[in-house]
Specification:
Two copies of one chain form a homodimer. Chain A is α/β, with parallel strands linked by helices. Chain A contains 22 helices and 19 strands. In chain A, helix 1 packs across helix 3 (41-51), helix 1 (8-29) crosses helix 4 and helix 5 packs across helix 13.
């Protein structure tokens, strides 16, 4: 389809108004990145007023085209476009960066037209992959657009996403790079030598176009070509000038992240832009609607999952139960999808793939693209479980941070946590993942010890609206819970207790079994201890811990994790302000290769160490 | 130079012996990745016995060629090569993966021939960039080789490093990709369709060769070509077969990370390999030595830095003092280098660049490549300071984790920490960096509050042999310390104290000034509090904190960081086992854009909140 586009001089007025708004709002704020907005004004004008199909009053419409502003520092331009479209009064732009305005320095989903927060460069394309995969999942024809900067193209995450986009053949995805030549501190690696970028995108399998990014007709034609391209995504490399439209800032060093000064400087710039406006007789640009009416993204009541059928004492690794659990959940909820990074046969996500191949996405060894795509999927109504070895999720730590800022409901599953993996050695042992995940506010952190709790926690994670992390272990562990036991987020299980408990041992995952062993060893000596399974590390069960703190002399935490940032810190944060003694057992040095049991003992988290610590109390 | 190479059939014997050793050691260990070793046996044989110049008995020789095994799971092959070269007896290979052997599941620098730990895929090339840059720094002709797998080429970090290698024109760097087609769980994205990889490497500016990776002559010729190439690094894409040499495993699915079973299975494989050996009359392969004698990488005594000349009350941001500090240090120590990711004008590393342009490396917006290169530089004797916004260091979290495993002396500087950055919003506010860095055992975590402490802590970080992190702030803060004050790692400063102190407030960075304000406000009411500057967050000053815990009713921690994993947890870990009450003030939700002072108050870490919390105690 070739569109009959609105006359270009009139659309040029829109671009000019977006520039004006970008300057006035940043000047009013006293900070921001007007020149990074100005380079992309034509791109955004062409997208918003002709190319994209959406409902202004309903930006989250399930079938509306998406725009992800990967170069998030151009936020004022995005805000100006929505004001121009009529979502809110233009005057509201002057609240930019004010404490009570949702028009923040970089976009966040506090705004209804933002799917994922951006501002950490190189993340938008991954989210775009997720949005495009979601369209495929729900059978929608909505298209996804991602606007990148040239500077951020240095991020490896961009190339992971590029590779994934081509692998999945996402012809419903169109990216545009605003090649304005100038980074923050200097010229980018290639400046305006745009062919270097073109050859890279082509090498990564994208249909690649090079256009003058200030030529609305060229942009329109490029969008037409993108829409006509099948089997692969399109990258439009748009040659632009930073600060375009204002002669004394355009294409000059030293203007990154710098608003124009109120008074003469801003006035001169605005006057120059005003002169570029032509009489358009009040022309408006009809916005094409989505091809289908809106519909709810989530069902009114979450579907029930089939009951479990484990037997007590059955030996099952929690990672395996995770795989079974997502497949069981996927059978009743079409929103559930799974992503993996070439370890599906270790994380057991291959159980999901076997059952639902259309909802399984292989990202190969590219964790950032995987988590980025999960963010995009979650933002569009899917419930994505992304799994890999827990240590390799650290590769996507910045994406996880931004998922927290975005408050999107990604579900991460990290397997092979801790020294209990054994001989593969420290590079494969996640011993800092709890610290990373706890440092995401509102991220639920779950750590099952057996198959029953693992499966229930998969369902809990899916029903939780925000981000959730499930930590699983490599070794098989015995089932200790009945199939119908409930594991609410924020709860815990007190597995051993008596009126004579001298101490409380809090374990989770593999260390829970060390705690139970220690309980029996001490019981044989006539010493009673309380044992708590802290399967919900965040939020943690403050009530149970405070009670234990009152009723026993001290709390001993035991974790297959470094001593910093994990279970011990979580427990301590819950009860530390009451003056409860908290003694921590955890890994205190870089471990070595060796058998799991040997390592658990050598690094101080075995039953023997718990017994010794209780005696010392 | 074209070498007269040892006759190929004899070198083929070496490759076959490396295969035999890879099988016997993994079979003895009962775990490991023999087939991933077997695909690369010719590559490693050609490198070790003809191409590389080194001294067997002195692997850390300053001018010896380097080999980084980016595909770290092929560790048994690397170990076998060093045994073949004579560094240790072949029988020692049978200790693979045993608890007291340094021949771990993946290589770590516990071994003298390993520069950086590998095993988290996609990291070796970044370290290789660092090794190659170091050769340039010291004017050495040593060459750096990096052996990658095809699976790990999906990692964006590989492409960041690729771009950096071309940008720096590192013709002393040669990478080889062992394209054995099979990942862990399935065929890689491209399998043996090697042209897809070739076009990518060429697009990223590398001299790229495609060879039969089992043809020693072809490999030798490729290494010759690489050595003859100027101005850019070389990538040799070697087409290989996983498990090559043993017919019943070669090029088959299901053999990743699986040793051959002792008995018939291993015996059959070994017999097949034994038959491939030819009579070589005991031929040996002379190893070319480095072109220059070894020399110490570090001076006997660290050079003295020029004294500071700040005045009390002078307003200087700690990030600015960091920049001044590394430049001051660089003036007396040629080992000091600086790396940045397009924010040198915000981190003030541009002060170092201005003084020492040859020792400043711009990585553009590619934090993984930056930190990876810092690891390689540090492993080779440089003292690299890598700086960016603290939040963007999270992009390199997995590299930082592996720097911990490697125990290399990288120095990271994260600026713009916390809500005190103001209007840019949550995507730019590091509020989890202390959690990340504390979870690296032995990583020193420093957090200066003023310019004097910042400059001294730069020197302390440089002198510390392991990894160190310096957290700096955006706003200007007053100088409160005298120029000659000492700031030892693990220390603290008690800035206010009396015998009547009811509570101790522990701050660091910007919150220290809130604590001092609170002190004065409370003093006006007749309430005395102790104020401690915890500039060393890890290790933390347990002695001073325990004393404060004994002498006052509670400790109140105040941090511009999320409540999890930061200063509060560090303090609590130090004194929590004594039953000292620790009350934490920190950021408990995703913050918004706004003025720094407003945010500091809104998120509960201002002087007013400290006063309220002390009153409540």
């Amino acid at each position: 389809m070739t569109r009959v586009f609105a006359a270009r001089p009139l659309l040029q007025n829109v671009a000019t108004r977006l520039r004006i708004d970008s300057i006035t709002s940043t000047t009013a704020a006293g900070s921001g990145h007007p020149t990074s907005c100005m380079s992309a004004a034509e791109i955004v004008a062409a997208l918003f007023f002709g190319e994209m199909r959406y409902e202004v009053a309903n930006p989250r419409h399930v079938h509306a085209d998406r725009l992800i502003l990967s170069k998030g520092h151009a936020a004022p331009l995005l805000y100006a476009a929505w004001a121009e479209a009529g979502l809110f009064p233009r005057e509201h732009l002057l609240t930019l960066r004010k404490i009570d305005s949702d028009l923040e320095g970089h976009p966040t989903p506090r705004l209804p037209f933002v799917d994922v927060a951006t501002g950490s460069l190189g993340q938008g394309l991954g989210a775009g992959i997720g949005c495009a995969l979601n369209a495929r999942r729900i059978g929608s024809d909505y298209r996804t657009y991602v606007l990148l900067g040239d500077g951020e193209s240095a991020e490896g995450s961009v190339w992971e996403a590029a590779s994934a986009g081509a692998f999945f053949g996402l012809d419903n995805l169109c990216a545009i790079t605003d090649v304005n030549r100038l980074g923050q501190s200097r010229q980018t690696q290639f400046g305006h030598d745009i062919d270097h970028l073109a050859v890279r995108w082509r090498a990564f399998g994208w249909h690649t176009l090079v256009v003058d990014g200030h030529d609305l007709g060229a942009l329109e034609a490029a969008f037409d070509q993108a829409r006509a391209t099948t089997g692969t995504p399109t990258m439009i490399l748009a040659r632009t000038f930073k600060g375009h439209g204002v002669s004394f800032v355009e294409n000059r060093d030293g203007w990154h992240g710098r608003p124009l000064k109120p008074g003469d400087e801003a006035d001169r710039a605005l006057a120059e832009l005003q002169r570029q406006l032509v009489d358009d007789g009040g022309a408006t640009f009809p916005i094409p609607p989505p091809s289908r009416p809106d519909e709810p993204a989530t069902p009114a009541t979450p579907p029930a999952v089939a009951p479990l059928a484990y037997t007590l004492g059955q030996m099952v690794a929690t990672r395996e139960a995770f795989g079974t659990g997502i497949a069981r959940l996927g059978a009743v909820d079409p929103r559930v999808v799974a992503l993996d990074a070439d370890v599906k046969n270790s994380t057991f996500s291959d159980r999901f793939e076997a059952a639902f191949p259309d909802r399984f996405y292989e990202f190969f060894i590219a964790e950032q693209a995987m988590v980025g795509a999960a963010m995009g999927l979650a933002a569009r109504g899917a419930i994505p479980f992304a799994s890999t070895f827990a240590c390799f999720l650290s590769r996507a730590a910045d994406f996880i941070r931004m998922a927290g800022v975005s408050a999107v409901g990604i579900k991460l599953a990290g397997s092979h946590a801790g020294v209990s993996i054994g001989e593969d050695g420290p590079s494969q042992m996640a011993l800092e993942d709890l610290a990373t995940m706890r440092a995401v506010p509102d991220c639920v952190v779950l750590y099952p010890c057996d198959a029953v709790s693992a499966e229930h926690l998969v369902v809990e994670a899916a029903r939780h609206p925000g981000p959730a992390y499930i930590r699983t272990s490599r070794p098989k562990t015995p089932v200790i819970y009945g199939n119908a036991e409930a594991f609410p987020i924020g709860g815990s299980k007190t597995l051993r207790q008596s009126e004579r408990d001298v101490a409380t041992v809090v374990g989770a995952g593999v260390t829970l079994f060390e705690a139970l062993k220690a309980h029996d060893l001490l019981a044989a000596e006539g010493v009673a201890i309380r044992v708590i399974d802290a399967y919900s590390v965040q939020p943690i069960d403050r009530t149970a811990l405070e009670k234990a703190g009152r009723e026993t002399r001290a709390i001993l935490t035991v974790e297959d994790h470094y001593i910093a940032g994990g279970l011990g810190d979580a427990v301590s944060a819950a009860v530390g302000d009451r003056g409860v003694r908290v003694v921590r057992l955890g890994v205190r040095e870089i471990p070595r290769s060796g058998p799991p049991d040997v390592l658990i003992d050598r690094y101080g988290i075995s039953a023997a160490h718990i017994v010794a610590a209780v005696r010392q109390l």
